[in-house]
Amino acid sequence: SGTGLSGSAGAEGATFTVTSNATSANTASTIIARDGSGNFTAGVATLTATAARYADLAEKYASDGDIEAGTVVHFAGEGKVAECDIANCRSVAGIVSTDPAYLMNSDADGVALAIAGRVPTKVTGVVNAGDLIVSAGNGRGMANNSPAIGTVIGKAIEANAGGDGVIEVLALMM
Q1: Cα(123)–Cα(101) distance, rounded to whole angstroms?
Q2: Which residues, listed in sequence order, are joined to residue 167 by a DSSP beta bridge?
Q3: Confidence of residue 2 (pLDDT cuts 50, 70, 90)
Q4: Are 123 and 142 in contact (CB under 8 A)?
Q5: Using CA atoms, how far apart are residues 125 and 108, in angstroms rounded to an integer?
Q6: Model confidence over 97-124: pLDDT tens digits?
Q7: Residues of 116-135 as b/e, b for ≥16 C-beta within 10 angstroms?
Q8: Nearest to 164 by CA among 139, 134, 131
Q9: Burial state string for 70-100 with b = 16 or more CB within 10 A and e = fewer than 16
Q10: Longest dimension (CA), the chain
């Protein structure tokens, strides 16, 4: 009682019935509820996480439409990102996230842009593990180990033998 839960049982071995005031609204003195799917619901929860199921930190950015995960995007003006159509682009913004471990501005419209961490990335051409990744001009990345400042979106974790592929990239802007 006093924490949003109450209940009682009349005898040993009896079924204990719990009554809860759980809600997804921002209401004082309520609890975080877990639904039948195992998901938790609350207005705002302050917690300490010790592990994450997914691999990158992302933030929502406005776009004119859906952009597929793994696509390399650039700042296209009016505060929006779009598929990057320029090789070695200085306005490159990064890579659209697949499943971010943490999503900033999650209520905003747009796409989740990977800020840091491992993210599957569409690439073209030969890429070796450890290569710096820049935009290739077709929504994909490519290797460039002598890039201009401001064009690097990450470092290849995996290799691509040639042609188009998807590899893991450590997202980091340089």
Answers
A1: 23
A2: 121
A3: very low
A4: yes
A5: 34
A6: 999 999 999 999 999 999 999 999 999 9
A7: bbbbbbbbbbebeeebbbbb
A8: 139
A9: bbbbbbbeeebbbbbeeebbeebbbbbbbeb
A10: 75
